[in-house]
Design goal:
- The structure holds two protein chains of two kinds.
- Chain A is α+β, with helices and mostly antiparallel strands.
- Chain A has helices at residues 14-23, 48-54, 68-77, 79-96, 109-121, 133-146, 174-179, 317-334, 380-388, and strands spanning 3-10, 28-33, 38-44, 59-67, 101-105, 151-159, 162-169, 182-186, 190-199, 201-202, 209-210, 215-218, 220-223, 226-230, 234-250, 252-270, 273-276, 283-292, 298-314, 341-353, 356-368, 370-374.
- Among the domains of chain A are: 3-75, VC0802-like; 101-169; 252-314, no CATH class.
- Chain A has a five-stranded antiparallel sheet with strand order 11-9-15-21-20. Chain A has a four-stranded antiparallel sheet with strand order 2-3-1-4. A four-stranded antiparallel sheet of chain A has the order 10-12-8-22, with no helix packed on it.
- In chain A, strand 18 and strand 19 (298-314) form a beta hairpin.
- Chain B is 10% helix and 60% strand.
- The chains are: A alpha+beta, B mainly beta.
- Chain A binds chain B through residues 15, 18-19, 21-22, 25, 27-33, and chain B through 30-31, 33-35, 56-62.
């Protein structure tokens, strides 16, 4: 890359200076006459020293430089800015390659802690540098191999400055489960209605009342007063179970009704406080776009505000009673599975107290009460002694 | 093709290219008087006098000189070699 200089020559009889240039082999690439005493010339940088030697009484001033020299001058002039920019860029690269949090997603806390410690051994922890794709893959493989009995699958995802580690826990194999000897016992008191025994010996008949903890399907197979075999008793036991439910229900109620009015609004959220232009008295917020800072509890965005009308009204006693019964049933149904249901419900007591009603109900349910309980095998002699006693 | 070969062989010969408002001279020997109305170019023993108005040299290399301005008279003095 060549460098050129634009020089202003000042002096009398410029043509004499041009003669000198010709005689000393100074190539002038461009000549622009300003006046009789002043002329601008463009020369190669390498001819500048020659020019200084022949200038004598002529005044030579560099006006401008182009090419490599100009580039060097620019760098020299802005060296602090360039240095700070490079430093800033390097700092940005450093920050964007730093881990600020590691989140492990798994329901098993014990496993989470183990994996967290393991990741720390591989330097995947807060304020350490991010790993390359290949390194992450290797770490995943190593952890999978080391914890092959505990984890089925592991995924480490790089999300900005955060590593998200998803773990799928390995379920215990059926074989191991089968090796455990169990009884199926009653988890609640009730009248047995159905028994589905997959393995083990039925100990009670249908329509028999059982107390909580009674063995319904036994894991001990006894023949001629001797335990022949221990098994993993398995099965389902459905029984009629009773509940006494006490419920209070207010006579006053509040209802939220949506109107057709809605509008978009700009909002700022600082911690839990919103700053926005509210048109409606009561409304629901639904953010459309939002910019959230992970480090500072600050959020900015656009939301849809949907107007709602709050209606406060009062139930009659009979209406409140109906609602209370529904609520009581709902409460019981929440604890039931799909194959379980309510058989019967009866109102035992009904009172109006202040601005609420108090209701006592009896609800009977068809419910699975069988629960597996670990069985510790006894020695044959011991069993016999126990039976003799 | 012939033109390029010819130019290549004769690249050290004196050459004067006249255009509307400028004259490009190659392989000259020296410069004579330079003024707004007259520029003298020397080529060996010849003297080329360019006359006109607002004449100026805009490029001055070892073997090339470019003159601009309204030239109206070019006088060749000396012996043709």
């Amino acid at each position: 890359m060549n460098s050129y200089l634009i020089i202003k020559i000042t002096g009398k009889n410029i043509s004499k200076f041009l003669h000198r240039c010709k005689d000393n082999n100074v190539n002038i690439l461009k000549i622009s006459k300003i006046s009789h005493k002043e002329t601008l010339i463009k020369i190669n940088e390498k001819d500048y020293n020659k020019l200084l030697k022949i200038k004598s009484i002529y005044k030579v001033d560099i006006i401008e430089s182009t090419g490599l020299r100009k580039f060097k001058e620019l760098i020299n002039k802005n060296k602090i800015l360039i240095f700070m920019s490079i430093l800033g860029l390097l700092f940005l690269i450093f920050l964007s390659n730093t881990i600020f949090s590691v989140e492990i997603i798994s329901s098993n806390n014990e496993l989470n802690n183990k994996i967290k410690k393991e990741l720390e051994n591989y330097d995947i922890k807060k304020f350490s540098l991010k790993k390359s794709y290949k390194q992450v893959e290797n770490i995943k493989e190593d952890i999978k191999e080391k914890y092959k009995d505990y984890i089925e699958w592991i995924e480490i995802t790089d999300i900005g400055t955060k590593y998200e580690v998803k773990i799928v826990e390995r379920k215990l194999s059926n074989k191991k489960e089968k090796e455990e000897y169990t009884n199926v016992i009653a988890s609640k008191s009730g009248v047995v209605k159905t028994i589905y025994a997959e393995n083990g010996v039925k100990m009670v008949d249908l329509n028999t009342y059982v107390n909580k903890g009674d063995v319904i399907i036994s894991g001990m197979i006894i023949k001629d007063d001797t335990v022949k075999q221990y098994v993993h008793a398995k099965g389902k036991v459905y029984a009629e179970v009773w509940y006494n439910v006490n419920i209070e229900f207010p006579l006053n109620y509040t209802e939220k009704q949506y109107t057709n009015n809605k509008k978009k609004s700009f909002y700022i959220k600082l911690a839990d406080k919103y700053i926005s232009f509210n048109k409606y008295k009561s409304f629901e917020r639904n953010p459309l776009y939002r910019f959230k800072n992970k480090l500072v509890p600050f959020e900015i965005g656009i939301e849809t505000q949907r107007e709602v009308k709050i209606i406060n009204d009062k139930y009659t006693n009979s209406q409140a009673k109906m609602k209370a019964i529904e609520k009581a049933k709902e409460k019981v149904l929440q604890s039931l599975d799909k194959d379980e249901y309510i058989l019967e419900e009866k109102t035992l007591n009904f009172n109006v107290k202040d601005s609420k009603i108090v209701l006592d109900m009896f609800i009977s349910c068809y419910e699975q009460i069988g629960k597996e309980e670990k069985l510790i095998p006894l020695e044959n002699n011991k069993i016999k002694k126990e039976e003799e006693n | 093709m012939g033109k390029y070969i010819s130019n290549y062989i004769r690249q050290n010969e004196f050459k004067m290219i006249l255009k509307k408002n400028n004259i490009d001279i190659e392989n000259y020997t020296n410069l004579g008087n330079i003024s707004d109305n007259e520029i003298i170019i020397i080529e060996n023993s010849r003297k080329i006098i360019i006359k006109g108005k607002n004449l100026s040299i805009v490029k001055l290399l070892n073997n090339e000189v470019l003159i601009t301005g309204n030239y109206n008279n070019i006088i060749f003095e000396g012996i043709n070699e």
